[in-house]
Design a protein that fits this description.
Elements lengths: L1 E7 L5 H17 L1 E7 L5 H8 L4 E10 L3 H13 L4 E6 L7 H5 L3 E3 L8 H20 L7
Parallel strand pairs: 1-2, 1-4, 3-4, 3-5
Length: about 140
């Protein structure tokens, strides 16, 4: 699976940036992954949708589905079985998504009932994408 990570703004928190870089590097070792930081502004959502065109769009959203790690891996396997080869993970700014953008998503994914600062949400989501990829590849990262 090819991953396009699209996030609002560059990470300001040093530890989050280091973690994001680490999991992106790990994910690239298994498959193809790239990250795009979009400058927040009035057309933020439009630019993020443009960048994710032609891919299966996953938006991090508090209204989305929650997945245990193995269930998320199964969801990704189902996409691969349907010949989906490109996924975009969109992480918006602190004000969340508007209804128009949310309606253009193929999957709304929630990290849980708590609210996370968007840089931390990106870090956690990347770790979970990496974890799912290792589960599907049969690598010994995940432990039940």
């Amino acid at each position: 699976m090819i991953w396009k990570i699209i996030a609002a703004g560059k990470p300001a928190l040093e530890f989050a940036r280091l973690g994001i870089d680490e999991y992106l590097r790990r994910l690239q070792a298994i498959g193809k992954a790239e990250i795009h930081y979009v400058k927040p502004g009035p057309r933020l959502h439009d630019r993020m949708l443009e960048l994710s065109g032609g891919t299966f769009r996953i938006l991090l959203d508090e209204r989305g589905r929650q997945f245990p790690s193995r269930a998320f891996a199964t969801e990704l396997q189902t996409l691969q079985n349907r010949a989906v080869s490109k996924c975009s993970l969109l992480v918006g700014a602190s004000d969340g998504w508007d209804e128009t953008t949310r309606s253009r998503a193929d999957l709304l994914w929630s990290m849980g009932p708590q609210t996370l600062q968007h840089e931390l949400a990106l870090l956690v989501a990347l770790e979970q994408v990496y974890r799912a990829a290792t589960i599907l590849a049969g690598m010994p990262y995940h432990r039940d």
